Amino acid sequence: MIKYPEMRGELIEYLKGLSDPDYQRECWVKKNFPPGIEYDCFDNAVHFLFDDTRLASDPSSMIGMILEDEHEVRLVYNVCQKIDDVFDRHGLDLTDEQYINCAEWAAVVNAAEQAFAAMRADSA
């Protein structure tokens, strides 16, 4: 049983955004938000993964809180590592458009697709 299902839902939504290049271009870059979303940007996902939770630093501690098991730990940690790779290569000061256009971004999208698919299936 997950202690914080709302936070799990937030994580799944961030993974969905990170896994969808079309969404990133429309929302993060063009600021054309779909119904029900007032604002979104890459920075929101980064803060959730790296600052608001321990998903980037100690994801195993999140089992039972917002993650189900070690499989989810590995998937989410991989997303964080891919984002870290982008930051290591390009720094922390690019625009969302610059980040999503860098060569390393495809690895972020791939990792997020895998994590999103698994967690969405687990939550269904």
Compact summary:
The chain has 124 residues and is an all-alpha fold.
Please, could you describe this protein's structure?
The protein has 124 residues and is mainly α. It has one domain. Helices cover 65% and strands 0% of the residues. The chain contains six helices and no strands. Helix 1 packs across helix 3 and helix 4 runs antiparallel to helix 6. The longest helix has 21 residues. The protein is globular and about 40 Å long. The model has no long low-confidence stretch (mean pLDDT 97).
Number of domains: 1
Largest sheet: none
Rg computed from alpha carbons, rounded to a whole number of angstroms = 14 Å
β-sheet strand percentage: under 5%
What is the overall pLDDT average?
Answer: 97
Report the count of strand segments: 0
**Overall outline:** globular
Number of H- or I-type helical stretches: 6
Q: Which structural class should the secondary elements be placed in?
A: mainly alpha
